[in-house]
# Entry
Amino acid sequence: MDFVVELIVNFALQMLFSLGFIFLFGKMIALCNARFYKNFGSRGQAVCIATGFIGTPVHEASHALMCLIFGHKITEIKFFQPNSSDGTLGYVSHSYNPKNLYQKVGNLFIGIAPILIGFLILGGLLYLLLPEMFGDVLHELDQVDFISDFGQSFVYIGKAFLDMFSYIGNWQWWVFLLVGSFIGLHMTLSKADMQGALSGIIVFLLLFLIVDLVLLLIKKSLLVSFTNAILTFGTFLLFFFCLFFLIAVVLLIISAIIGKVMQNRY
# Structure
């Protein structure tokens, strides 16, 4: 019985700190973004195009990169098409062998690629523009241990945010915020993205469960180490997703104010 409980607990933690965070924050950011553009009324599409010259190519390049990594054939790609008849700013069409498990799992990563790559770009941009701040944030996040001390972990994450906003007087911070805003506004996963991702999720879950089972059969400490590694990665995901969500909320408030001013003016 203890064996089964150990397997289930570790598997659940792994999924929560990986796919759980991705889908949760992806949905919350998507809702904020949808409302952001809606607040501009008839000018929403124009605002979407204006912000899309950075965000859309990043979004589509993320899909394309994962297609290449997982061996999918890219049949057509549009990085940015502001004058499309149906309003679609970009897309990636691809094909794969449904009998190939690796390519089938790839559907999951291709679907969620804009969120994953957006997270990596934001982290890389922070490192390039403000390496000292990146080091401060890294120091706080390195101390996070949700298993040993759940409450204190959020204290460290809070300190990481305080460290980040202590650099608000630097021009690099504002460049980071601006680029992050453009990327964040186009991280929203389309219906096709979600359908593609879900088509590969079952195989992904089964592979993880098999790996966990094998590690536990060999030695319990191996499974614990594997889970801790995923939790460490998940902590960085959580931090940057919270940052993306904070940006989305601030932009939502700004758009609501601008929308009200526009309504009163006209």
